[in-house]
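Residues determine shape. Next comes a sample protein:
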Amino acid sequence: MDRSMRYLSLVTCLLLATSLNLQASERLTTLRGEAYDLKTDTALYTEHHQFEYDDNNTLVAAQVEYRSTDDEIIGRKTLDFRRSLSVPGYETRLHDGRYIEGLRYTEDGVEIYRSRDGGESMDTKTLKLDGLMAADAGFNNLVHARFDQLIEGDTVKFRFIAPNQQTSVRFKAEHVGERSIEGMPVVDFKIAVASLIGLFVDPLRLSYDAETRRLIEYRGLSNVRSADGELYEVRIRYPALIRKPETSE
């Protein structure tokens, strides 16, 4: 995978489909996602999310299991939102810990780390938090905070913190239209690298329920790797969040 394509892997775990603008009674506690190959539509794996909230119904933590089509666990992720909804601490471990990526808070900012050999060697780097930033699934919370701004046509620029690349990269989010998924109206956002590299690679596509503002579908590179280390290119959908259209009797 060349350098320009790898940049799109920086925003591949945006799929924490919890809506900040819903009433407490509508909070999600579990969610299942289904990942398919973007070109062949072949089933690849499933995501199994669990969300935790504090007494004020603010999101504080989440866990994700990734399972193969044979229902074998191929990876796990933990997220901690207590310091920031848009830049959570987190760690992802895939294929028995062969691939590890994460972010943790330090006195100097945040430390990002990665390993490709089961943790025998670890690449680390400390970054300062400055301006509008997001990491991992915190991007979805950033979208919710800027949802109206995006719908009105503004472009939202931010930096995405990427342990996979040991850096943060400039991205931009834009509203690109409306359509329907299984009869339910959705709004589409495009996420692209905010540099010349973005001219040579396909952007990521995210579709949100126009009413609940929950993430329904994602198209792009996955955060999940095959056993040989290649990132999947996927379409991920959350069937339980698709509202059936009302029908008149």
Notes: The chain has a mean pLDDT of 87.
